[in-house]
Design a protein that fits this description.
The complex is a heterodimer of chains A (241) and B (454). Chain A is α/β, with parallel strands linked by helices and 241 residues long. Chain A folds into two domains: 107 residues, Rossmann fold, CATH 3.40.50; 116 residues, 3-Layer(aba) Sandwich (Rossmann fold). Chain A has a four-stranded parallel sheet, sandwiched between helices. A four-stranded parallel sheet of chain A has the order 6-5-7-8. The longest helix of chain A is centred in the last third of the chain and has 17 residues. Chain A starts with a strand and ends in a 5-residue tail after the last helix. With 454 residues, chain B is of the alpha/beta class. Chain B is 52% helix and 10% strand. In chain B, the strands form two sheets. Chain B has a six-stranded parallel sheet with strand order 1-10-7-4-2-3, with helices on both faces. The longest helix of chain B is centred in the first third of the chain and has 23 residues. Chain B starts with 6 loop residues before the first helix and ends with a helix. The chains are: A alpha/beta (241), B alpha/beta (454). The interface between A and B is large, with 70 and 71 residues.
Chain lengths: 241, 454
């Protein structure tokens, strides 16, 4: 498959290793992968702040850059959901070909085995947009059979032990501009999530969304916690740490 | 109530100054959410039930005027007097008129958020009518001279010991008494006297059935029944969205309501009122107060499907950590935040932003209101009408410019990475106030990708 790797702006600038891990995972599966030049932001921060109209050029630019690929894969549930919804609103067929990384590995590539080892206790943070928006798993509110695509993929990693959590899918409080506009509530939510993972002995917190992890990792670092954050791509690619 | 664009974050900041108390508030309401999960999981057709309720409500809203007229005709035929109120003021005038006609001086009132919305109590007090709230939570709030912080559990902001102190101060209970059952008993005995002395009773309405002209009131304390069955006059007030078409639809909503609200299979009392008993007068007041305006907004009309279970409050991580009084509207939580902008977008400008858009509210909602999508849509309207600060508007415009120009984006990113260690040291921006930024990488992904290609 000819895949366009979509690298969200903050991952490009702050977490290039996440994009590289995604690139390695996809090429490792035998796909031809390109990350087109000229990518910036999906426009979600603008839309979520009430400036959706100003974010529209971002979606237009994205469609122009990625229209030629068989599939577009991005290591961020939140950005992918935003693009998917906005492309859908425009009737852009690209909306059916854009996937969050775990969704692609699980549903399209149908990965059953991974060459990765990670002998650690890991807490899975279910990012809200991946979970409730893209349906990567069963949200705890819904009375449907339980499943989780990220957890299933993590189950293929040798030595990795997933820790149970008291609140399996409560929001971490990042929420884009919410994290600064409602800074106090945001930090309180994040610290509560962090404490849940710590209480259950997680050494690492992982997620399909790096933005949640940027928030949780930032709080952990400020608090002097030993818990580290890693994007799920880094663990699945087998090159974490 | 602060009519500013940052009223919610400021009030939330204050709420969080007492970490022990805010943690208790969060835990208490989370417990209600988990009880709801347990109850919902025992109904195999739960999701079908939600879908059915959602469709009944959508259908009803699409033909609301017809169902309202059908309800009013049947109710009148049953001997109920039906009144129509355009707004809160007219509602109060109608209720006052009924009471004055009967020379009523004492009114017992079971829970009704609508009368809170219309500010009925102060209006009646001005005219010398004593109103006693008979729902225990509301009675506590009334004795406290406060306001409800939650629509189902009005006094959830108070701890048991604080209720004990309040009762000691207002009802003479022994100092230090904080046993829930003992306190409830004191309130119960006090209320009992007031039921017998009441000249009239007022109740809310959970469901008004168009087909029968009857209505249903759900309580856990039987207080609506005590009031209505003893008093010679029963006034029931409803927002015009409380209508459901048929009696058989009640089964759908009654199964959802209490499970979603408190994790009970059903409320202790689901009282059906069809007609006045002999010698009694029964009135129904149907109130618009902005609802028809909301009905005319396609993006927001589904908010009128709300059955006021407050499951969205209990699940909302922001509500749990900011408390009911941090919301500038009398209905707090996610549903309040989509109802409030219909009333006043300037005053409630901060509410649609008091959410991470995590979507838990929409997923828990028994009638499937797309609450978080509506929050996002209200944000657009509030910004378009200019109710946000100029700093934010400027920042967004700058960001939009950077995102439109990849070269500027690359340059800005390069500079940002250079400044990042400094930001982590001085903590001047709102992000680093509470959390660190990650150590900056030597090169961006795009830089690596280009280098690799060469």
């Amino acid at each position: 498959m000819f895949i366009g790797l979509f690298v969200p702006c903050y991952i490009d600038q702050l977490y290039p290793r996440v994009a590289r891990a995604s690139w390695e995972l996809l090429t490792g599966l035998g796909h031809t992968v390109e990350s087109p030049e000229g990518q910036t932001c999906c426009g979600q921060p603008l839309a979520n702040s009430g400036h959706a109209a100003q974010g529209e050029p971002c979606v237009t630019g994205f469609s122009r850059l990625f229209g030629r690929y068989d599939a577009v894969v991005g290591p961020s549930g939140s950005c992918v959901l935003h693009l998917k919804e906005h492309l859908e609103q425009r009737g852009d067929p690209l909306s059916h070909r854009i996937h969050e990384l775990c969704e692609f590995l699980h549903d399209i590539a149908r990965v059953e085995r991974l060459e990765a080892t990670f002998p650690h206790r890991v807490g899975l943070h279910q990012s809200c947009h991946g979970l409730r928006g893209l349906g990567l798993g069963r949200p705890s509110e819904c009375q449907i059979p339980a499943f989780s695509k990220p957890a299933r993929l993590l189950g293929m990693v040798r030595g990795l032990e997933l820790v149970p959590l008291d609140r399996a899918d409560e929001c971490c409080g990042f929420g884009g501009t919410f994290s600064v506009q409602e800074g106090d509530v945001s930090a309180a939510m994040g610290n509560d999530r962090l404490a849940d993972h710590e209480r259950h002995g997680a050494e690492f917190i992982t997620s399909a969304d790096m933005s949640c992890l940027m928030h949780l990792g930032g709080l952990a670092s400020r608090a002097g916690s030993t818990v580290k954050v890693l994007h799920i791509a880094e663990i699945l690619a087998g090159n974490a740490l | 109530m602060l009519p500013t664009t940052d009223s919610h974050p400021r009030a939330a900041h204050d709420f969080l100054q007492d970490p022990e108390r805010s943690a208790w508030h969060d835990e208490t309401l989370w417990m209600v959410r988990t009880k709801r999960d347990r109850m919902a999981s025992r109904v195999p057709e739960w999701e079908l039930l939600r879908e059915t309720a959602s469709q009944i409500k959508e259908h009803t809203l699409s033909q609301l005027s017809g169902y309202l007229e059908e309800f009013a005709d049947r109710a009148e035929a049953n001997g109920i007097t039906v009144h129509w109120a355009r707004d809160g003021e007219e509602h109060n005038r109608i209720v006052l008129g009924i009471l004055q006609r009967h020379g009523a001086k004492r009114l017992v009132k079971s829970k009704s958020m609508l009368t809170e919305e219309c500010h009925l109590n102060p209006c009646l007090a001005e005219h010398g009518i004593e109103v006693i709230d008979t729902d225990l939570g509301e009675r506590i709030v009334q004795l406290e001279k406060g306001a409800p912080s939650h629509i189902v559990m009005p006094a959830i902001h108070l701890k048991r010991s604080e209720v004990g102190e309040l009762f000691h101060r207002t009802m003479g209970t022994p100092e230090g008494l904080d046993d829930a059952q003992a306190l409830t008993e004191v309130a119960r005995q006090d209320l009992r006297k007031r039921y017998f002395a009441a000249d009239a009773a007022l109740t809310g309405i959970n469901f008004a059935v168009a087909e029968t002209g009857g209505f249903v009131v759900c309580t856990n304390e039987g207080n609506a029944d005590m009031g209505a069955h003893l008093a010679p006059v029963h006034i029931a007030c409803m927002g015009l969205e409380k209508i459901i078409p048929r009696q058989e639809h009640l089964g759908v909503f009654l199964r959802l309501l209490a499970r979603s609200a408190t994790g009970q299979p059903i409320t202790s009392f689901s009282s059906h009122f069809l007609k006045p008993r002999r010698g009694q007068e029964m009135h129904v007041v149907i109130v618009d107060n902005g609802r028809s305006r909301q009905l005319a907004r396609p993006d927001f009309r589904k908010s009128l499907a709300c059955i006021r279970c407050a499951a969205c409050f209990n699940t909302c991580p922001v509500y749990r950590r900011s408390g009911g009084f941090s919301y500038s509207y009398f209905i707090a939580g996610p549903i309040g935040s989509i109802l409030a902008p219909n009333i006043d977008r300037k005053q409630h400008a901060s509410l649609p932003f008091a959410s991470t858009l995590c979507g838990s509210c929409s997923a828990v909602c028994p009638v499937k209101i797309d609450i978080h999508t509506q929050l996002l849509k209200w944000r657009q309207e509030i910004v378009a009408e200019g109710h946000t600060g100029w700093m934010k508007r400027l920042a967004m415009r700058a960001a939009a410019f950077v995102f439109r120009h990849p070269r500027v984006f690359r340059m800005a990113g390069w500079w940002a990475r250079k400044f990042l260690p400094l930001a982590n040291r001085i903590h001047l921006d709102p992000w680093t106030k509470t959390r660190d930024l990650p150590p900056p990488p030597k090169e961006s992904f795009q830089e690596w990708y280009r280098r690799r290609g060469k």
